[in-house]
Design goal:
Order of helices and strands: EHEEHHEHEHEHEHHEH
Shape: globular
Distance between the termini: 30 Å
Structural class: alpha/beta
Largest sheet: 8 strands, mixed
Radius of gyration: 18 Å
Number of strands: 8
Strand content: 5-15%
Bound molecules: SN-glycerol-3-phosphate, calcium ion
Number of helices: 9
Length: about 260
């Protein structure tokens, strides 16, 4: 199998099914088993969230705090990686996943790199104005380059300053601008400034006219958090280029069904 690359995957003709925090409807989010299951389910890309531990190591978790998705308590950033690794990140979801740990970004890349496209979201509050040498975006870029994955990784964020900083490094990594509201003035200009690969809005506010505007400007649109059958069908009607969904298998089936009903 050839190495997946962003440039190698067709846009507009083939929908991109992007698994949100892995196969999140059936597995504990942002864990290695959720990523493996999403690959197995045929996802084109896997989305995950990265944060820094107290000792500045990159760990994959969505929330600022440990309470919802682990048996730990309190802010992620107050624990070292060794402390985080002792936590159970699967049992909260279902007993059979007990023992699943919070992955480091390295572990996630080891599992997925070269097998599937990867969308790494850097959370807004990870932005550090003083730009330390071990800022999350610097560590992340270094890791992506070391693994030879520049062509298969897409970095997204709601924090424009963070994306601007990455763009200014000139590494050529693909960037996606996240903004909840697709119709907010200035979105396209921001994508242009960043030379973004794509734009990722919440599906709820997304309309066909927004998608057409982004397409005219040259940017694919991948809406996020559309997980139910109804939500997925709504996204398809907008003409979006794919979907960031917690149920990649369902999204694939519905997309195929909608396409065959149009032919
Ligand atoms: O990357 C899109 C989506 O994941 C952004 O929202 O809260 O699920 O990280 P959230
Ligand atoms: Ca995310």
């Amino acid at each position: 199998m050839s190495m997946p690359s962003l440039a190698g995957r067709r846009l507009r003709t083939d929908p991109w099914i992007i698994a949100h925090r892995g196969y999140r409807t059936r597995y504990p989010e942002n864990t290695l088993c959720a990523f493996a299951a999403a690959i197995e389910a045929g996802a084109d890309m896997i989305e995950l969230d990265v944060m820094l531990a107290r000792d500045r190591r990159m760990v994959v978790i969505h929330d600022d705090t440990l309470d919802r998705t682990t048996n730990g308590r309190g802010p992620v950033g107050l624990k070292t990686l060794a402390e985080l690794k002792k936590l159970d990140a699967g049992g909260w979801f279902a007993p059979q996943f007990a023992g699943e740990t919070l992955p480091t970004l390295e572990e996630a890349m080891d599992l997925m790199g070269g097998r599937v496209l990867i969308n790494i979201e850097i959370k807004r509050n990870a932005y550090e104005p003083d730009d330390p040498p071990d800022a999350v975006e610097r560590q992340l870029l270094d890791l992506v380059k070391r693994r030879g994955l520049l062509n298969s990784v897409l970095i997204s964020s709601f924090e424009v300053r963070l994306l601007e900083r990455i763009a200014s490094r000139g590494d050529g990594v693909a960037l996606a601008f996240l903004n909840r509201n697709a119709g907010e003035p200035g979105n396209i200009e921001t994508c242009r400034k960043l030379q973004a690969f794509s734009f990722h809005p919440n599906w709820i506010e997304l309309k066909g006219e927004h998608v057409r505007e982004f397409h005219q400007a040259g940017f694919p649109v991948f809406p996020y958090n559309a997980d139910t059958e109804e939500q997925i069908r709504r996204v398809i009607t907008t003409g979006a280029d794919g979907i960031i969904t917690s149920d990649p298998l369902l999204a694939r089936e519905i997309w195929k069904e909608e396409e065959s009903s149009q032919t």
